[in-house]
Each structure stands twice: as C-alpha cells, then as structure tokens.
Amino acid sequence: MRKPVDLAIAYRLINHGPVVLVSSSFRGRHDVTPIAWHMPVSDDPPLIALEIWQGHFIYKSVMATGDFVVNIPSSSMAHLVRNLGSVSGSKVDKARKFGLRLETSKKVRSPRVGGSIALLECTVHRDVRLARKYNIVLGDVVYAEAEEAIFGDRWLPEKAGPRTIHHLGGRIFCTPSRRLL
Questions:
Q1: CA separation for the pair 2, 85 (Å, rounded)
Q2: Domains in the chain and their CATH numbers?
Q3: Triad 71, 73, 76: Cα angle to 5°
Q4: Closest among 50, 68, 71 to 142, alpha carbons compared
C-alpha cells in the first residue's frame, strides 16, 4: 500500500537514480516511457529534472499538457520497462499493447502507472528555457507517495520487498542489493 510522502523529502524517491516511467496523455493517447536521466533539483520547493529527447512522443505530450507523473517501477516490472522503451508512443498505444493498468492521479491530469512502488506527480515548471535548449524538463512536484513497507523517510534496503530498477547501459538493468553503511 502506498502512503503520501512529505514533499520536503520527495526528492529521496529518485536521488538514488532508479529508472522511472514518465506518463502523460496527449491527443487521446496515454504514453509511458522509461527515463534513466533524471535528478532532484531542489527540495524547497520540490523540483526535479528529466532529460527527454524532444523527438520523443512523451516530450511532446508533457510540454503540450503541462503535467506528467514520474512512476518508480518495481524490479518485477523490469521486462515491462524494457518493452516500453523499445517502441515509440507516436506509433504504438503502449498502454494497450502492454496491458498497462493506468490510474487517476491526485493532483494532475496525467495518469499513474499501476503497480509502481512510488510516484511523483508534477507540473511543468514555468521556466522552459532548459527544455528548449537542452531537452531538460523541470517538474514542480505537487504530490508524491511510496510503498510504506519499503520507504519511510528514505528507501529502506534492509526491508524485504520490491526493489527499484537501475539502468547500466544498453539492455542491462540491475537492482540495489543491500545497505553498506
């Protein structure tokens, strides 16, 4: 069961670098695309950055609608993540093709991806200069939640349960295995 996450610590959902699934809807089509290049930018106000190539359908969707959801998939979704990254949302209805369970968001129009272990609902930051010049989309985090069994005020690697997915390049993915310190 996911619980709301205080926006002051919402950046901790992505600061360890998991692959995320960005979801948005545009022209009647839901799109969900894996993104590995992202980072927290500020915790006050909560702000994140995603690098999304301007030729991707998800970029057009996010910029046209002004909102998106960053869904953090569990390790059990690894094949789905790879499949979602293998086709273009401009050519394929990914939600239908891969049987995605989409859910209504709390604060934005874009859908959530069911089965995700955490999420950040975002609106596109009003300053879009980085998006136009470098494909860096800034998102104001307006709502966040995470699985309470594995996220307290941070990810809890000592707890049993699903893990985040990390992209090592090419078609190689891994999960974090244990806490070191």
A1: 25
A2: 2-174 (2.30.110.10)
A3: 160
A4: 68
Residue 47 to residue 42: CA distance in whole angstroms: 5
Q: How many CB atoms lie within 10 A of CB 81?
A: 22
Q: Which residues of 137-175 are buried (b: 16+ CB within 10 A; e: fewer)?
A: bbbbbbbbbbbeebbeeebebeeeebbbbbbeeeeebee
User: Could you tell me if 83 and 51 are in contact, meaning their C-beta atoms sit under 8 angstroms apart?
Assistant: no
Cα dihedral 59→67→84→77 (10° resolution): 150
Q: What share of the chain is helix, strand, coil (3-state, %, to 5)?
A: 20, 40, 40
Residue given tokens 């993104």 in the structure block: 35
**Tokens 């594995």, residue located:** 150
- pLDDT tens-digit readout, 76-121: 999 999 999 999 988 999 999 999 999 999 999 999 999 999 999 9
Model pTM above 0.85: yes
Could you give the C-alpha distances from 141 to 11, 90, 148, 180, in angstroms and in order?
A: 9, 26, 19, 30
Ramachandran angles phi, psi of 156, nearest 5°: -115, 85
Burial of 17 from C-beta contacts in 10 A (0-12 / 13-18 / 19+): middle
